[in-house]
Write a structure and sequence with these properties.
This protein is α+β, with helices and mostly antiparallel strands and 143 residues long. The chain contains four helices and five strands; from the N terminus they run βααβββαβα.
Length: 143
């Protein structure tokens, strides 16, 4: 078990440059799928995002966390693709990603930050990040 003294230093950068393959590898690990060489993460965030946060291991530069804040161009931002590498989980990386995204959405004039999550992630989003549970609706467009 690591002590608090040997935790790696993580840097957090809003709208940081990244390579498609590093985000896709992180996403595949976090969401349990094979990496897709065809995913254009860079194009997607540039077209649809208010911004995103990359968390990197300061020593190696390795991407260990990512969150994307998409928006409606007005008062609502939405978190998607929040993911932390297995090696960096339970170190506060995810909560810092969300906090920085929320801070930047607020600075951009957004009034609300939304997130959808599976019930198993309730302790993270509600307890650790401070989201308030709300009723919501969802239509599955693909079966």
């Amino acid at each position: 078990m690591r002590s608090s003294y040997d935790r790696p230093v993580i840097s957090y950068v809003w709208r940081d440059a990244f390579e498609n393959d590093e985000v896709e590898a992180l996403h595949a690990e976090g969401f349990g799928h094979e990496p897709l060489a065809s995913d254009d993460w860079w194009g997607r965030v540039r077209r649809h995002s208010l911004g995103w946060v990359c968390a990197r291991h300061a020593g190696t530069g390795a991407l260990v966390g990512f969150v994307n804040a998409v928006w409606d161009g007005g008062g609502h931002a939405f978190l998607v693709d929040t993911v932390v590498a297995g090696s960096a989980r339970h170190e506060g990386v995810g909560t810092r990603l969300v906090a920085l995204a929320a801070e930047r959405a607020r600075e951009a004039g957004c009034e609300w930050l939304h997130v959808d999550f599976d019930e198993r992630l309730r302790p993270f989003y509600v307890d650790a990040c401070g989201f308030t549970p709300t009723p919501a609706g969802l239509i599955a467009l693909r079966t």
